[in-house]
Amino acid sequence: MNQKGVLYICATPIGNKADLTHRAKLILEQVSVILAEDTRVTGQLLAHYNIHTPMMRMDQHTEKHRMDWVVTQLHQGHSLALVSDAGTPSVCDPGAGLVAHVRQNGGCVVPIPGASALVTLQSVAPIDVPYIWIGWVPRRPSDWHRWLTVASRMQLAIAAFESPNRLRKRLLELAESFPHSRVILGKELTKSYEQIWDGSVETVLSEIGGAPKGEWVMIVEPTVTPQWNNQLAELATIGLTRSQFLAVATQMGVPKNVAYVYVTQHLCEGVFND
After folding, report:
1. What is the 3-state secondary structure (H, E, C) of 47-77?
2. I want to staple 102 with a disulfide (CB 3.0 to 4.6 A). Which of 19, 77, 107, 245 is the partner?
């Protein structure tokens, strides 16, 4: 009876190809097939290390359709490696569904750790409070504000990835609702042109310019007391309906998303007259 194969979850460099670990290189050389998020990107890494292992595309579009094939290969004794374009698969990248499916079907999954954008950034800009990792910043401003509110109340930091086309908008929202918050930003980490900022959100906004590009990771420490909390708490005591509350808050200059989040957080407390 053949010994079952292993699915290796291999971290790859986040920018600098020299950061591939020796162990990961050995695994990529020895497995039967490399399951790659993008075979073109992984192909460049393999060429750099003179690795000739066959590849198969495994991204969010193909993962579901190839899960059973992967399980069959493992049961037949073939070991496979799963890689993403950069960093660790299944951590904000495709792969979580495959890992769960393999384990549910009795397969062996082994992590091969490597470079991490978050750990890399934190190593050069330490924070003194616990932090929560949320993956990618939510697309909806109200969801982003909820995370910031939770972190502010619990005196936590938030760590996340953000795309360049939304980064400035998210920082502006932070500055509006939680002014003077500390922001640590890393751009293109481990590459020769990496950049790191550490300062107030207002300072960071002034330094990154109007059209950020590249790969970004950030750590945010929201100010402990949002600037609008006292005004909204006082307004909530006079018996307004929700719609009246939102209208008056807007007239006071409170951002709409801030007022809306305040309403949703206090609905069960009976402070609104509807």
Report:
1. HHCCCCCCEEECCCCCHHHHHHHHHHHHHCC
2. 107
